[in-house]
Structure of Endolytic murein transglycosylase:
Amino acid sequence: MKKEGRSYTLLSSKEEVFMGKRNPSRTTGKTYIAVILVFILLFIGSFVHYMQNLGKPFDKNNTKAIAVNIPQGSGTSTIGQILEEKKVISSTNKFKLLSKIDGNDGKYKAGEYSLSPSMPLEQIMEIIISGDSNTSRFTIPEGLTIKETADRLAAKNLINKDAFLSEVKSGTFDYRFISLLPNTENRLEGFLYPETYDIYTTASEHEIIGKMLDQFDKLVPEEYYTRASEMGYDMYKIITIASLIEKETLVSSEKPVVASVIYNRLAVNMPLQIDATVQYALPEHKERLNYKDLEVDSPYNTYQNTGLPQGPICSPGIDSIKAALYPANTNYYYYVLSAEKNGSHKFSNTYEEFLKNKNAYVHSL
């Protein structure tokens, strides 16, 4: 008998396909295409995201005005590098790409500009293309008082004088030295740092004052506060002394010596007798003081009072601040203008020697 069992029939390769068996090579091809499509979609998505963010501000929260000089002959790449170095934009390449897209190559103009990291890239481009500076520049020399500073800024139509002085008296500013200041109308005297500034033409009185206080804060580091404390002073008194030095001599090399005279007199409770403090106490500046002026009743009058005046009498420069912190080591108690009439002084440790130097100066006139 024949055994019953299953019978098997061999199929051809074509028949295998018709029976539903997969073709490995075709499956691999489909997978490869799918992977390529995924990468293309990712690339497109990344490109779209990049383009959407291309013109966004470098730092939308940083509204600080940054002075930027674009020299004559600067191309797009150079301008981009300048802006990136100034931290106005995040990338030179982004600046170059958007310039190319917008057709701005060759349109930029040299000049001084005040730009901010909070500005969109296209706004920055428009400002530089226009060539119209949106800034004003002003210089505050060393030795000016707050009133003189306000007069100078008002004359340039940069401020309303009353609004400026109101900000000086009661504006809110966040610096470590603010807590040291007295609650007076000229509380910021000595702290509006003398410098050349570029500001937006739309800057408020508060912003202008803040820019000057920023400069002071930048130039007076922590070590200066430590040094002041070691000397037995706070920064307000150091700036008061620096302002006296600023008014007494224009010769930088003399400043530490003038400082030594001030400290030597303070040490023995000797009146400082500095004319500039009397000038500050008077309603108006006088070309020449008389004896009656020296009797003016004021906490700034160092002829009538011993010790330091009530506060600073002007804005001192960094050389005067350093001199107040690091005075020369001398035995001098007096000085007078030199007979050489070059702005320098003759210093002495006795009154007799002072009179001799004074007579020499008087006879040189």
